[in-house]
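Our preliminary data section would be incomplete without showing what the modeling component actually yields. Below, a chain of 144 amino acids is followed by its predicted structure, encoded as tokens that our downstream tools consume directly.
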Amino acid sequence: MKRTILPAALALVLAGSVAFAQQTQTTPAPDAQQPAAAAPEHHHRHPSPERETAHLTKQLNLTTDQAAKVEPILADRDQKMAALWSNTALAQQDKHQQMRAIHESTQQQIDAVLTPDQVQQLKAMHHGHRGNGQEQPPTPPPAA
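Predicted structure:
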């Protein structure tokens, strides 16, 4: 069962980070004039570490100490992901491998901060986002 939960959780985090990374790369300068019909291709932005921590705090009933430990973990993940996606020397496949490693490391760090019950709640939350909870491969980012 654990082998099914972790890939599903990683796929969810992976999809959110990919959307965030691409959103930051495709966002025009604030003063750029764009017609209203040319909306950005991504409708969802990856939440900031602060907002993501607030969401986890509400959903998992994190203590103040837990929230203070989780937020820097998420911020570090976002920094690593941004650096990874801005690295043009890496092939897409290599980026995806490193992205999975970043997500796995992040999940392990967060799990270490949470109680066993909170870890189970988080896994259940990830299953809810994936639908039926069955193992599915991560969705690759859309072509630019």
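Confidence is low (pLDDT under 50) at residues 18-44, 132-139. The helical segments are 2-26, 49-60, 64-86, 92-113, 116-130. Preliminary results of this kind motivate Aim 1 of the renewal.
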